[in-house]
UniProtKB/TrEMBL annotation:
Molecular function as annotated in GO: structural molecule activity
GO cellular component terms listed in the entry, alphabetical order: bacterial-type flagellum hook; extracellular region
Residue intervals of the Flagellar basal-body/hook protein C-terminal domain: 439-477
Flagellar hook-associated protein FlgK helical domain mapped to chain residues: 86-309
Protein's UniProt name: Flagellar hook-associated protein 1
NCBIfam families attached to this UniProt entry: flgK_ends
Swiss-Prot/TrEMBL GO biological process terms: bacterial-type flagellum assembly
Coiled-coil region(s): none
PANTHER family to which the protein is assigned, alphabetical: FLAGELLAR HOOK-ASSOCIATED PROTEIN 1
């Protein structure tokens, strides 16, 4: 080997080791940076006589493992959203014994009716029974309003997620172009790819996606259902938030907005083009989960109204429990739990008289103070087993307390099932995430590599020094 070749080889080695040291420093500095992929300098022989050529900087990451992590993120996000919603609804109803539950309100009403029937002449007992009845209606009103608030929050969340999807897809499209331009002129586009990867991970929590490599280091994004979100250009996702929510509003009825992509209507239900992820969970809460619970609440309210009718009234007159002061209208059951109230005739706050609970809602004057016939009938109605006329309850006769317990049990069972699913999917997400992180920057390994780089740098420098000494010796001859 000639002196010139040796010198050229050493210089190329110094350049390569210097670049490797820079990459190692970048890896170490970004060890905890989200979306950062470890870099390695790609080297090859410069020529037949030796030397080193830098071919580029490669990002070290497993695309298959990254895809699996994104699927796990979407599933965990979906399960967490649903579990949180069911926990919130269960908290609204409350559990027996916590002092603010529907069961406790009903128990207080039952006890008040028994006391009033035992002492019909006691105005305080009658007032307590009226207050307890009002407590039941207020609890149903509050739970129903909470369910509709949950639906509205879900609708608002859909709008926010759609906006985030549109903005993020546009950013990824721009990064695709920037990466292609940088690669075309030989610049390192790794930092741009890191940014793109972080944005794709954000989308994956909203809707499960797959990334497909395209020419020029670009990527295309498709949902697992096969819908193109980005392939050259970003798709336009459209949704119109409702801003208000009531029990009679639905997607099927046209009062609520669905989802469309590039003008095409798409679904988020199982098997749909955009199924899975937090977006699908929000639609499920708004259009399925919360409406079904509202339906059962309305069925419970209807059962109350029907069982606590007053025999002294005409069939079309409202009983102790009313639909916002009116008689029950079976064609307007949606939202009944939000409107149920006690009859104004017994409500002192509405200029009513509590003695009408004893003497009849239509009574114009007080009757015999010792007459407990109607009070006993009301107490019997509370414990009488009747079959719910609507809702998703099974066709079995139940008392008021049993029907309330069934309602809470349904929600609790759904919540427990959702939490179990969430626990499994979260554990899976953590496992896959750890696998991805294990492929990231290992600072110990980087420092070991740096020591090797320093040794190689010193060796190449020694070659240059030796060449210099040889040249000096030749010149002194």
């Amino acid at each position: 080997m000639s002196i010139t070749n040796a010198l050229n080889n050493a210089v190329s080695g110094l350049s390569a080791m210097s670049r490797m040291a820079e990459v190692i420093a970048s890896n170490t500095a970004n060890a905890l940076t989200e979306g950062y992929a470890r870099r390695e300098v790609q080297l090859s022989s410069a020529n037949l006589t030796g030397g080193v050529r830098i071919d580029g900087i490669a990002r070290q990451i497993s695309e298959s493992l990254l895809q699996e992590m994104r699927q796990a993120d979407a599933a965990a996000s979906n399960a967490t959203t649903l579990s949180t919603a069911l926990s919130a609804i269960e908290s609204m109803l409350g559990t027996p014994g916590d002092g603010g539950s529907l069961s406790d309100a009903l128990s207080a009403f039952d006890s008040a009716l028994i006391s009033a029937a035992a002492t019909p002449e006691n105005a305080t007992a009658l007032s307590a029974a009226v207050d307890a009845a009002k407590g039941v209606t207020e609890k149903l009103n509050a739970v129903s309003e909470g369910v509709q608030s949950l639906r509205l929050n879900a609708d608002t969340s859909i709008g926010q997620q759609v906006q985030s999807l549109n903005d993020t897809l546009a950013q990824i499209a721009d990064l695709n172009k920037a990466i292609t331009r940088a690669s075309a002129v030989g610049n390192d586009a790794s930092s741009l790819m890191d940014q793109r990867q972080a944005l794709v991970n954000q989308i994956a929590e909203i809707v499960p996606i797959r990334s497909i490599e395209r020419g020029g280091n670009q990527i295309a994004l498709y949902t697992t259902g096969g819908l193109a979100l980005l392939d050259g250009t970003a798709a336009t996702i459209e949704f119109s938030p409702a801003h208000v929510m009531s029990a009679d509003m639905s997607l099927a009825g046209g009062e609520l907005s669905g989802l469309s992509v590039n003008g095409r209507s798409v679904t988020t239900t199982a098997g749909g083009l955009m199924a899975g992820g937090s977006l699908a969970a929000a639609f499920e809460i708004r259009d399925e989960l919360a409406p079904q619970i509202q339906t059962d609440l309305d069925a419970f309210a209807r059962n109350l109204i029907e069982r606590f009718s007053d025999s002294s009234l005409t069939p079309t007159a409202p009983g102790l429990f009313t639909d916002a002061g009116n008689a029950l209208d079976l064609t307007k059951e949606a939202g009944l739990a939000q409107r149920i109230s006690i009859n104004a005739a017994v409500d002192p706050a509405a200029s009513g008289e509590v003695w009408r609970l004893r003497d009849g809602l239509a009574a114009t004057s007080e009757g015999a103070a010792s007459n407990a016939t109607l009070l006993v009938a009301l107490s019997d109605a509370f414990s009488r087993a009747t079959v719910p006329a609507s809702g998703s309850f099974s066709p079995a006769a139940r008392s008021v307390t049993e029907l309330a317990a069934d309602l809470l049990s349904r929600i609790s069972t759904s919540r427990q099932s959702a939490e179990s699913r969430q626990s499994y999917l979260t554990a899976r997400q953590e496992t896959v995430t750890q696998q991805v992180l294990s492929q990231g920057v290992d600072t110990d390994r980087e420092l070991q590599t740096l020591l090797q780089v320093e040794q190689a740098y010193a060796a190449n420098a020694r070659v240059i020094q030796a060449v210099d000494e040889m040249m000096q010796a030749i010149l002194e001859l």
